[in-house]
Amino acid sequence: MNSPSHKFLDNKYWKLISTIDSLNQDVSFTELISHMGIQYTVEDIEEVVTFLKKFGHPIKIENKTHDAWIILTGKKPQFKMNISLSEWLAMQAHFPLLDENKGKAIYNTLANCLNRLENKYPNADFYQYMDEERTMGELTRELGHDKEKLLKAVNEVILKDEQINLETKDKRNFDIFVHKVVYIDGVLSIIGEETNDRCLTCVDIDEIEAYRIEGGSDYRANYASAEVDDFISAVRAISGNEQRLVMKVSAPEKVNLNPDFHFLGNPFVTTNTEGEFIWAASVEVSNELYKWLATIYSEIDIIDPSSVKEELEHFMEQKESLKHLKKAS
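The structure assignment produced for this chain is given below.
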């Protein structure tokens, strides 16, 4: 089926359609044109209101003293889709096909809607899964065979809600119920509960000498996910490396905003008045953070903090220099 063609799908009209549809209070034509731009006319507004009313939108035009107004007369229509996990994953797999309309207002409307859904259901992100698979492969190659086996064992106990026995280089021996594996001070660390005292702990994987999966345990988690996140934030606060990262993302459907092993505290997404996608989260400033940001460099613009923006530019320059050195050799 070919893409439909209609003037209402053009940028000018679609911006007006989405703006009027998003209204939560009555507005005058004068105010609306002042907000949208002088390229819009009274006739344009009347056409769009007529268009929306055909789909059951509760609005009308009412003439008041010296001006016409758009009046909301009821509850705006909302649409919900009950789809299965496989249907949602299949839908995500088709997201790149939408790029033929990238840059159009109608594309932005759908992209923002799908981004909200992805952020509402982060555990069902098809592209995050693929990115995590790739990241895991790269990371385990860097860590070496022994650490690769350890990470696989840790992932196994997380999957099965089991515990793992760890022995560290300083001869500590304990069972731990693992919640997450994240970077702390730039080092990959296991976050979990020591089953003996049921308290949260942080274990650097470089300090682990030996491990053994403890099957058949009936241990149940003592901490909820939010409490684990608070613990990670508290640990990072001690080092003083945590900062609030705010950035504009040009193509959020292409970017993995939940990178593997990175703890992102209090993530938040919104759009600005220009419809641009804004993402924020508390992050640990480390070399691993810059490695991740480098993978999405072409799709982001860091708004704050300026120090991270500057350091990322420096990181990219070093990366480019290293690439030239490798070619020269």
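Interim note for the steering committee: The mean pLDDT is 82. The CA atoms of residues 3 and 97 lie 12 Å apart.
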